[in-house]
């Protein structure tokens, strides 16, 4: 595709101060990213977390790096151990780390170093309700979010839950970076529409990279 040959033609869409969509930024690395996901899943399988309110998250999740985001009857938190295996989370694959750092730099965040890589897998019909990412203690660090497989509609809101939401289509290889004044903006994923497999995937993977502590 054109955007692989001519990176300068990729779209760059500013969502808000500190927040940008880097269209196709991860596309050339997608095969390596998918292989790295498989490697992580062998050590830390995907699982659907319970929430403190008795529900269950629609996306299946796991993590890599020093800290993993977990949820159970006690609520949400970061943990250095995988509650499913009792072991430390798998080491963050180098391709995850290098892509996250490059995307952060491209978005203007020069100092970023991910400590946590969250893997979300959305089957068709699964989404993620509007929320803020506020379990991280380092508020200066941005969130780097990579989309692979089926497309999604990302809801990009504001600082309050009832602020108007923009609907932003995200496709295989797109990267969203948000931080600075947008770090705590509300966002979500509308239920994924079924469709023909993309890059061999009949679902959507999302990778998010964060500095936690
Ligand atoms: O799947 C996405 O694009 C967003 C995921 C997200 O907001 C999260 O994991 O906190
Ligand atoms: Fe989030």
TrEMBL record:
<keyword id="KW-0223">Dioxygenase</keyword>
<dbReference type="InterPro" id="IPR037151">
    <property type="entry name" value="AlkB-like_sf"/>
</dbReference>
<keyword id="KW-0479">Metal-binding</keyword>
<dbReference type="GO" id="GO:0035516">
    <property type="term" value="F:broad specificity oxidative DNA demethylase activity"/>
</dbReference>
<keyword id="KW-0408">Iron</keyword>
<keyword id="KW-0560">Oxidoreductase</keyword>
<dbReference type="InterPro" id="IPR004574">
    <property type="entry name" value="Alkb"/>
</dbReference>
<dbReference type="Pfam" id="PF13532">
    <property type="entry name" value="2OG-FeII_Oxy_2"/>
</dbReference>
<dbReference type="InterPro" id="IPR027450">
    <property type="entry name" value="AlkB-like"/>
</dbReference>
<dbReference type="InterPro" id="IPR005123">
    <property type="entry name" value="Oxoglu/Fe-dep_dioxygenase_dom"/>
</dbReference>
<feature type="domain" description="Fe2OG dioxygenase">
    <location>
        <begin position="113"/>
        <end position="213"/>
    </location>
</feature>
<protein>
    <submittedName>
        <fullName>DNA oxidative demethylase AlkB</fullName>
        <ecNumber>1.14.11.33</ecNumber>
    </submittedName>
</protein>
